[in-house]
Amino acid sequence: MSDAGCYSPSFKKPSDVLRMRKKRARSETFGGKASSPVVSVDGVRPFSPGPLLNTQGRAGGAGVKRRNPFANIENTYNSPKKRALSHTVCGVGAPDGKTTAAAGLDGKLPHERVNAGTSLREELLQQQQQQHQLQKPESISGDESLFEEDLFGPVRSDPVLKSPDGRAVCDAGVSDPCLEFPADWSLKTRLLFTSPQSFSWAEQLKAQEEAQGLTAHCRAAYASLPPNIQEPRGCAELRCGFQQCLQYWQHPSFSWLSLFPRIGAERKFLGKITPWAHDANLQQSLMSNWSVSLTSLYSLLKARLCPYFYLCSYQFTVLFRAAGLNGAKSISALLTPTTRGLREAMKDAGIEFTLPLLEDKKKSRDASEVESSRQADDEDPAKSGEAGKSEHSENEVDDDDEDEDEEDGDGDDGFSWLEEMGVQDKIKKPDAISIQLRKEHREVRLDHRPESVVLVEGSNTFTLLNFLMNCKSLVAGAGSQAGLPPTLLAPTAFRGASLHTLKARTVNVKTRIRTGYQDVCSLEVTGPIMPHTVHGLTQLLKPAQKGEFSVGLYTHEPTAVLNVPISQTSEAETLEDVVQDLGRCGLQQSTVQQLAAHSTLGRSALRQLHMRGHSYSWRS
After folding, report:
1. Is the pLDDT confidence value at 522 over 90?
2. pLDDT over 50 at 28, yes or no
């Protein structure tokens, strides 16, 4: 390389380039000045990227190295942009920086030739070191903090909030971990549990374990599990408890028919054997047995020996709950979805009911009007107050007018003002049918919608019970479900009920991630899944899966609105009394506590539930 006097066109490593420049600087230091020095001008960098070489041994004696054809004023160390950036970062004046750079390049300062060969990154790091000696370094995380700690000394670290599972939390105002999830009163058709831990303990139960689980369910005996289970497959209490959670009671029951869900399930009944479809005596026998079972359930509910039960017909679903559940003062019943004809029939039967979603909407609208008028009063009490009163009075008048229009049976009285004006013959009056349709429009548009949910409380629930047993439209008169009574589902035994078991199966799959594949274990549970089943399974999986699992909940959509709030108890310290009163209902005490608390889901249902570090998070 020294004989050639120029750069090699082949690729060179940075270490080789630095070694070559050090060798050149050393040769010039001991060999003397070049015969044809390059004149250095401030702000202008010669095209040669390196200092002049000593060419005393060359035959031509030219003494000037040839120009590098790839050199550019913008990509060299002495470019104006990089020089300005260097001066800005390190705080050095422009004249001093230019003098130093020019001197280092033309060979006037031989002892700085080593620094001239360093890269811009190394220069910036050295300059940042001086800057950080004068300023306090900011908090740095990750590998960069270790790198800069070596350069600038120990780094100050800001406190970082940690979640229970060790993950960093961005918000400083994070609430305490949620140790319980809200009760979901909607019916589920499928649960899909996933976890990094295996679900092998939930498969292939022994005959003795299955028998113990059935016995424990019938006797309402619940065994306590240890908080941490090292070997779930060898824990007999866990496997028996899992079998116990899968049990439920149903009426009627036919081995060749799946009687849940009933709404929109006509295709499931096509092609099935239905001997009662054209046999009136058989239909009457089925309805008689069904009425006995329904009466038995209501008696158990009234005595607080059954917490709740569902009535699933081909048109609607009814949820009966015992007093104290979801903060109710007495027995309550929710019926959804409804139609105008059904609501009119309930009114004719003397059943008092409310539409909770419509009432909440009206209350929120009134509250917003009051808030707006209050803000207007704060801005201008004199004018805005009168305007708010007038607007409120007009709204009241409009509402009263609408109510009067709906209650009036004769449409001619509403057009008496036309006679006063003398134009009664020129304007065409709407006929009676149009007037009746206009009055019924508000009620008809609620049919089959979530807003049509009906709430019945207190003694009216017994009247609703008699209404359901005598309602002819409760059973389909035609179609694939003709003559089949509604399905009754309950967590405890009742007259005429059959004991059924939810289907469960485990699957281990591999999912693709960035670094390869990861094993994911899943547990699938299918069937009519009630609220106590969801809570019982999560209580079992908490110690079995070491507090790490997720579950996807598939909701029977017509029942998603059953989480609407109802009238609450005025006393605040009634939860313990409710749990004590429902101590013999057949459910675990922790499950009763969850069901007795006020539901916070509103008109939505749980879709996903996650447990991380023994704390819950969910999405509805």
Report:
1. yes
2. yes
